[in-house]
Write a structure and sequence with these properties.
The complex is a heterodimer of chains A (108) and B (514).
Chain A: E1 11-15, E2 18-22, H1 26-30, E3 41-43, E4 48-53, E5 60-61, E6 66-72, E7 75-80, E8 85-89, E9 97-98, E10 103-107
Antiparallel strand pairs in A: 1-2, 3-10, 4-6, 4-9, 5-8, 6-7, 8-10
Chain B: H1 5-18, H2 23-31, H3 37-44, E1 51-53, E2 76-83, E3 86-93, H4 104-120, E4 124-130, H5 139-155, E5 161-170, H6 175-179, E6 182-186, E7 191-193, H7 197-204, H8 210-214, H9 216-223, E8 228-230, H10 233-246, H11 283-290, E9 297-299, E10 307-314, E11 317-324, H12 335-350, E12 355-361, H13 368-372, H14 375-388, E13 393-402, H15 403-408, E14 418-421, E15 426-428, H16 432-439, H17 441-446, H18 450-465, H19 469-473, E16 479-480, H20 486-496
Parallel strand pairs in B: 3-4, 4-5, 5-6, 5-7, 6-8, 11-12, 12-13, 13-14, 13-15, 14-16
Antiparallel strand pairs in B: 1-2, 2-3, 9-10, 10-11
Helix pairs in contact in B: 4-5, 12-14, 16-18
Classes of the chains: A mainly beta (108), B alpha/beta (514).
Chain lengths: 108, 514
């Protein structure tokens, strides 16, 4: 190829069954594969601090029951249960600072 | 000749005020690798062209012992001057005076020069280097910011507005650059963010450096907030000066014409684009093979590289280029590239700059992340921007133009004035593989050798539809041209569209999807 063409770091991108030889952007490479939300895994929707844990492993919980208090952005957030079930594990403890998307409570 | 006492008094006052925050503060500024506000203005403007206003302005804040503090120039220098003879209004925040913090009089100086620029219909350049609001002045600081944002908005599309970030620009202050046309940043010097690392750490517990949060590279590569990235202040000033040559003083004028010149012979237009539509090439070389003196001035070089935008000249007149880049992400349209292109198209339209669009794309990027990021809304911006633009719109289809991508990229249907296609153009509803899989699904599935049948059908489809002649037979393409004729056709089209006059229905303003 003439004309100062720098063709390094090429990969392939599939668009409508055609494979295009091209550079793949870092943003595309880093994109996370889609995962449907799992109501049994309660994640922190915002970074914050675990203020209070109101249930323990093995407890039966009802839909709408408050499971945990999360302090975030100067607000106390009540984390409520979306389904009926039993608490399988609580991988965080009172006082923990958690980032967005951290698993707080897992239900069976 | 004796200098009168009054004259000497003026000179002394000036000299003192020219030192801004004083020698110590200047030393600190230099230690950070930064020039002073005054040096920056002098470096940017033509020699001896700077006229300064409001040198003697002082604040009259009283709270928190402010009445005992004198802040020379109140931390910002304003005035007007010229760049290559073109008049510009300019302000530069002076970090050596109270950290360039913005108080009431500081903002009054800025809004004064903004009003001046709008009234005189000349470009405005703002050099930002400020710690933020002057906390001691409370709500007056906020008022000041708001009055700047208001003027940025009112002036938008009337006069060019350039923001140069040469230091911190944090909190509310970031919204002035965001409202202007072009943002210039310098590696290791520019820092822009709404909330700084300290606040993020306290509130969210996340640790990040200023550079990683809102440094020049981040805004050039990741956020798309910056349009020009430089390694030094000097390089940054060269970029500003060059940009000024491409744009008009205001929206009722055209950019000044320059001496025309042929593209350099090293850019051989016949040899740049591979025949196989799945193979990459650098579309900037096609632009360089078309444009005067092969001088292409790219904008947002590091962001959404799958689309290329920038200025060049054709026959001495400024034109704006929008081109799919097959070398990056196959040149697809996606959320970021749509946003980048749409804003540039609107810029060119606002300032009477004809648009040349070079098309070679497989369509929009598929994926959950794109759909959830709103590719419908963002992609629509491109359609909107092209459709509403009334400047001359010239389109050259180099190779692929499939599906929605074909429509979006300044097609005849969105009001393009001239549409040319190379013989290598494939103007079709989708690529041959995808189309064959759908149209001949039954034949392929029921064949003894499905793969062989698929290949055969792909070839059939290619022969029939992967060309420019179907579109040309409907008049959607005005002419199928040899690559080597491209410049000739474009030069002529620009010449005949010099008096283009179309009127849009009366409206207060449209509602683009943003």
């Amino acid at each position: 190829m003439d004309n100062h063409d720098n063709q390094e770091n090429l990969g392939f991108l599939n668009i409508q069954s055609s494979l295009y030889k091209t550079r793949i952007s870092p943003k595309f490479q880093k994109r996370k594969p889609y995962q449907p939300a799992d109501p049994r895994r309660i994640l922190s929707f915002i970074p914050g601090t675990v203020l209070e844990i109101l249930v323990k492993a093995g407890d039966d919980v009802k839909k709408g029951e408050t499971l945990m208090l999360l302090d975030a952005m100067k607000m106390q957030n009540n984390l409520k249960c979306g389904i009926e079930g039993r608490v399988k594990s609580i991988p965080v403890s009172k006082g923990d600072r958690v980032s967005k998307g951290t698993l707080l409570i897992e239900l069976e | 000749m004796a200098i009168s006492k009054k004259l000497r008094e003026l000179q002394e006052k000036r000299e003192k005020l020219h030192l801004g925050g004083g020698e110590q503060a200047i030393e600190k500024q230099k230690a950070m690798g930064k020039r002073t506000a005054r040096e920056r203005i002098m470096a940017l403007l033509d020699e001896n062209s700077f006229n300064e206003y409001d040198l003697f302005v002082e604040h009259d804040a009283r709270d928190f012992d402010m009445d005992k503090k004198s802040l020379p120039t109140d931390g910002v220098i304003i005035g007007s001057g010229t760049i290559y003879g073109a008049p510009v209004a300019i302000y530069a925040q002076d970090f050596t005076v109270a950290g360039g913090s913005l108080g009431l009089m500081h903002s009054r100086k800025i809004t004064k020069i903004m009003d001046h620029a709008l009234k005189m219909r000349i470009p405005l350049i703002g050099i930002n280097d400020s710690g933020g609001a002057r906390i001691q002045e409370g709500v007056n600081s906020l008022a000041g910011y708001g009055e700047i944002f208001f003027r940025n908005t009112i002036s938008s599309g009337v006069i060019p507005q350039l923001s140069v970030i040469l230091g911190p620009c944090a909190g509310g202050a970031v919204y002035s650059p965001a409202l202007t046309d072009f943002v210039f940043v310098v590696d290791n010097i520019s820092k822009m963010f709404i909330t700084g690392p300290e606040v993020i750490k306290t509130v969210l517990g996340e640790e990040i450096s200023m550079e990683d949060l809102g440094g020049a590279r981040v805004h050039s590569e990741v956020t798309g907030n910056a349009h020009f990235f430089a390694m030094s202040e000097e390089e940054c000033f060269d970029q500003i000066k060059k940009l000024i040559t491409f744009i008009p003083w205001n929206n009722s004028q055209k950019a000044l014409a320059f001496e025309p010149g042929e593209p350099l012979p090293e850019y051989n237009i016949n040899k740049i684009v591979p025949e196989d539509p799945t193979l990459p090439y650098d579309v900037k070389n096609v632009i360089r093979a078309i444009v005067d003196k092969s001088d292409f001035f790219e904008i947002m070089e590091m962001y959404a590289k799958n689309i290329v935008i920038g200025f060049g000249r054709m026959g001495g007149r400024t034109v704006g280029f929008v081109a799919n880049q097959p070398l990056e992400m196959a040149g697809v349209l996606d959320v970021d590239s749509s946003d980048k292109a749409a804003r540039f198209i609107r810029y060119c339209d606002a300032f009477n700059i004809p648009l040349i669009t070079l098309v070679d794309l497989p369509g929009y990027l598929p994926g959950v992340d794109q759909e959830h990021a709103g590719v419908i809304r963002h992609g629509a911006k491109v359609l909107y921007a092209y459709s509403e633009a009334t400047v001359p719109k010239l389109t050259v289809i180099l190779r692929k133009a499939y599906g929605g991508g074909y429509i979006a990229m300044s097609s005849r249907h969105l009001g393009a004035d001239f549409v040319f296609a190379w013989p290598s153009a494939e103007i079709a509803v989708m690529g041959p593989e995808g189309a064959a899989n759908i149209i001949f699904r039954k034949e392929i599935l029921s064949a003894k050798d499905p793969d062989g049948m698929r290949k055969q059908k792909v070839e059939e489809y290619k022969a029939k539809f992967a060309n420019p002649y179907v579109a040309a037979s409907r008049g959607y393409v005005d002419a199928v041209i040899e690559p080597s004729e491209t410049r000739k056709f474009l030069l002529h089209s620009i010449e005949v569209s010099g008096n283009k006059d179309v009127s849009m229905p009366h409206k207060k303003h449209g509602l683009p999807p943003f």
